[in-house]
Amino acid sequence: MNIILLGAPGAGKGTQASKIAQKYNVLHISTGDIFRANIKGGTEIGKLAKSYIDAGKLVPDEVTCDIVEDRLQKDDVKGGYMLDGFPRNIFQAERLDKFAQIDLCLNIEVDEKLLMDRICGRRVCSCGQSYHVSTLGGATACAKCGGALYRRADDNPETVKARLDTYNSQTAPLIGYYKAQGKLKCVKSGEGSPDEVFAQIEEILDKQ
Ligand code: AP5
Ligand code: MG
Questions:
Q1: 36 belongs to the catalytic site
Q2: What residues contact residue 187 under an 8 Å CB cut-off, 6+ apart?
Q3: Which candidate in 36, 122, 123, 185 is catalytic?
Q4: Cα(95)–Cα(179) distance, integer angstroms
């Protein structure tokens, strides 16, 4: 099964992707994680991406689409994959339709009022696990691997505001795009805990 995870910044795409990957054994591919790994590694793609990410804007479509197209040619995607953060506008979605067969688009819906707190309170580990300060009880190490927790460079109020504007103007139209293709399923994550949100996702995936 090939899945797209759609949702605003902070909706819980990464949080749910870990749970889906664990239970359904589908590969998690996050374009944000790919860009951050490139920034850390000092590559040309990383240098280009950093200025866009810091400004809360989209990295240019051609670069992003080429990365995903290359990634989907590897053998490890054959058992199914989840795209987290791609596509992010209609251009990317149309390009994706040319090189991939998508079965389902899961749209994680959250009240925009909750997003600023969720993102600014997020702490992440280099192993991919993310937390919120409100549940960490002061811990500074990852419960999964012991790595040091840190705040993402783009998780500051000014950049988050720009990311939300980008989402509303460019990414939200994808909801209609996948609805028209009959692939859209909506999950409400406004008030539920991560486990409660995952229970809704399980209900959808178990029927596929
Ligand atoms: P990306 O890394 O994709 O960031 P994003 O879309 O802004 O989403 P986030 O990772 O911030 O949120 P999330 O939905 O994963 O939430 P999470 O699970 O962590 O992209 C970063 C940048 O890269 C973009 O701005 C852009 O510049 C560039 N980029 C990436 N893809 C691109 C593309 N296709 N084209 C062009 N540019 C691209 O959860 C957030 C917090 O909430 C955590 O603290 C978590 O613990 C908490 N939480 C999660 N679920 C719940 C819940 N149910 N209840 C309470 N708290 C919860
Ligand atoms: Mg994420």
A1: no
A2: 16, 106, 107, 108, 109, 197, 200, 201, 204
A3: 122
A4: 17
List all residues whose CB is within 6 A of at least one atom of ligand 1. Answer: 7, 9-15, 30-32, 35, 52-53, 56-59, 64, 85-86, 88, 92, 118-119, 121-122, 130-132, 163, 189, 192-194, 197
Closest ligand to C-alpha of residue 111 is 1
Taking only the tens place, the pLDDT of each residue in 79-103 is 999 999 999 999 999 999 999 999 9
Q: Of these residues, 50, 57, 71, 152, which one is catalytic?
A: 152
Helix axes 112-120, 157-166, angle to 10 degrees: 140
Percent of the chain exceeding pLDDT 70 equals: 99
